[in-house]
Amino acid sequence: MTNLQVSRRSLLRHVGCATGALLVGSIWPERLFGENVTDDAVRFRKTVIDKRFVAESVAVADVNRDGKFDIVAGNVWYEAPNWIPHEIAPFQFVDPASGYSNCFNSWMSDLDHDGWEDQIVIGMPGEKTIWRQNSRGSGAPWKEFPIWHSACNESPLFVDLLGNGKRVLVMGYDDDRLAWFEPSKDPFAEWQCHIVSKPKGAGSQRYSHGLGVGDVNGDGRNEILTNEGYYVAPPDPRSGPWTFVKTDLGAPCAQMPVFDVNHDGRPDVISSSAHERGIWWHEQQVDRQGFNHHLIDDSISQTHSLVLAKMGRSKTPNIITGKRFWAHGPNKDSGANDPALLVRFELKRTRAGVEWIRHVIDEDSGVGTMFVTHDLMRHGLLDIVVSNKKGVFLFEQVPM
Question: Which of 4, 70, 92, 200 lies 20 to 30 Å (CA to CA) from residue 219?
Fold first, then answer.
C-alpha cells in the first residue's frame, strides 16, 4: 500500500434483514497524505446489502418499475430503497472457500420488449449463457431462455460495439472463436453469432483473460481488444473474420477500457492483472505501431475487474478496481488472503506527465469478476456496486 491516500474506516451498525444481515455504514471522508493532495475529495456511504456469497457480478436496473434503481446479483434482486431480497431463481449456498458462482457476468436489458428489464447471465467460463425474463411483479421464478451454448473469456462484454445505440455480447465460444452476438428477431431464440477471430484466435479460450472495446486506431469504429492485440472490423462487421493486429497490451487482465490518458490525441488502454499483481496504462506510440507500458500499482493482488468512471464534483476520470477475494479459494493465488481492498486511482495530468493518485475506498469488500458504477440515487454522482465472495455491497457517493 502506498502512502498517497488512505481512507478512515467507520464502525458499522447492524439493522437486520431477511437475508441474514444488512449493515449500514457511516460516511467517511478520505484523508489526504503526502504530496498528492487533491481538492476534489470523494466520500462514500457503505451499505452491506448481503453477507452471503451470491454472485461474482452485479447489475443495476429498475426491476419493479417503481422509479427506483434496484440491485441484481445472481439469483437475487434487492428492492430499493431498503434492499429487500427477492429470488429470481432458487438461491443455492456455495462455500466461498471451495465453490464458484453460477453468475460470473450479468447485465440487465429489456430483451422481450415488454417494458420490464430482464437479466443476462453468464455462469462458469465456457458454459452456456442465458437470459431470464422478468416476472413482472408476480413473484414467480423468472423463466430462462438460451442466448448461446458456450461463453468463453472471463471478461465478456455487453456493449454498443457498432456505435448504433444497441448493445451486443462480445465473447469467445467453444474454446475456438471470438465473436459478437446480437438478439434474433424472435427474442426467445438463440442469438445470432458473428465471427470475429480465426480458429483459436486471441481471447477466444474458455479461460482467456482480458477483453475491451474501443476505437484504438482512430478510424471512427470500435475495435475488439485482447492483451495480445486487437481486431479491426471489416466494412461489414457481420461478414467476419476481423483483421487481427498483433501487439503487446500487457499481461492477462480484466476489462480493458480505451481512453486517451495523456491527452495527446491517441487512444491508450488501461488494464489490471486478473490473478497476479499489477494495474497499468498502455500508452500508444506516436507512430501507432505499439504501446509503452506504465505501471500504476502492483500492491493489490487479483484485480479481476476494472471500471473507468468519472468521480467527484469535477468528474475526473478514475480507475476503479480492487481485490477479488479468494478467486480460487484460500492460499491458491498470490495474495489470496490479503485484505479485500476497493480502490480508485484519480487521474492527474501535469506538465511532468501523468499521475494516478491512489484512494482506498474500503478494506473489506473488493471486487468480483464484474461490477458497476451507476447513479443509483439520482444525485448526479456515480455510486459503486460490487458482489463477490465477501457479499454484496453498495458504496453511495455522498455529495461534498
Answer: 200
